[in-house]
Amino acid sequence: MEQSLKITIEGIPGIGKTTLYKELLKTNKNIIIGKSDDFVKASHNSSLISDKISKLLISQDNKFLKLGSPLGETFLLLAKIAFKQDETNNKRKKGVYFSDKSIDTFFSHQMVQLSKETCFKTNDEIFQWLLNILKPFYKFPDITFYLRPTNIQSFIKSQEHLTKKEKIFLLDIYHMYDYIYTKEFFKKRTYTIDINPDTTQEDIYNFVQNKIYEIVYKHK
After folding, report:
1. φ, ψ for residue 175 (rounded to 5)?
2. Which residues pair with 149 in a beta bridge?
3. Range of the domain at 15
4. Taking the CA of residue 185 as centre, how many other CA atoms within 13 Å lie in the half-sphere pointing to its CB?
5. Cα dihedral sign for 132, 134, 135, 140?
6. pLDDT in tens, 175-190
């Protein structure tokens, strides 16, 4: 393979991304050489500045973020992503990188948060603002598999462990995922997998596995 290839799985929390990821990782361990994204979690190998940003984001004593500033949080996360990308670029080898989340996770979650800010009038403004910041330096995924429940209300109802507030946020995330995947920049590299009550884990696995083989073969 002449270049690195980033393949990611996306979807709302609880839809089965991580389960699918682990199964695919077992099957494809001979072609996958690393995880494509880890831009939110702190890493033991991360830079000092990157580490400080991570600690700041999760600090219970951080009054700035506790006051509820989506814009401030987004800037800190963008800084974290920038430093993480810089580190990754220096270490990345040619091959397939695979992950159960990506920059799309950041987009959908932060767009929900930023929609509360008065400095943005529409989702289009937020989307373009984030994209303009990230495009010059960030390596976006090459292929994304988007797991999408066809009946979101039924899915949310099944998540009995969630609070009412968490269920509302989950619905907001769902709508924002649907929004970003209508945008050509994201849509052109995304396979949407509609999940209905009759869809089995095996159905999803087989579809994604077949596509991975097709995609990897084409890039050899």
Report:
1. -65, -35
2. 195
3. 4-218
4. 15
5. negative
6. 999 999 999 999 999 9
d(CA 146, CA 185): 15
Q: Give 158's pLDDT tier (boundaries 50, 70, 90).
A: very high
Task: Retrieve residue 10's tokens.
Answer: 């996306």
Phi, then psi, of 106 in degrees rounded to 5: -60, -45
Give the residue among 98, 195, 114, 86 at the shortest CA–CA distance from 150.
195
In contact, 141 and 103? CB cutoff 8 Å: yes
Give the C-alpha separation, 80 to 106, whole Å.
12
Taking alpha carbons only, the member of 180, 69, 76 closest to residue 133 is 76
- State the alpha helices, DSSP H only, in the chain: 17-27, 48-58, 63-66, 70-91, 103-114, 123-134, 152-158, 164-180, 184-187, 201-218
Looking at the structure of the chain, the number of domains it has is 1
Q: Say whether pLDDT at 218 is over 80.
A: no
Three-state DSSP state, 113: helix
DSSP 137-158: T----SEEEEEEES-HHHHHHH
Residue with tokens 């600690």: 55
The answer to whether the beta carbons of residues 7 and 98 sit under 8 Å apart is: yes
Residue predicted with more confidence, 9 or 77: 9
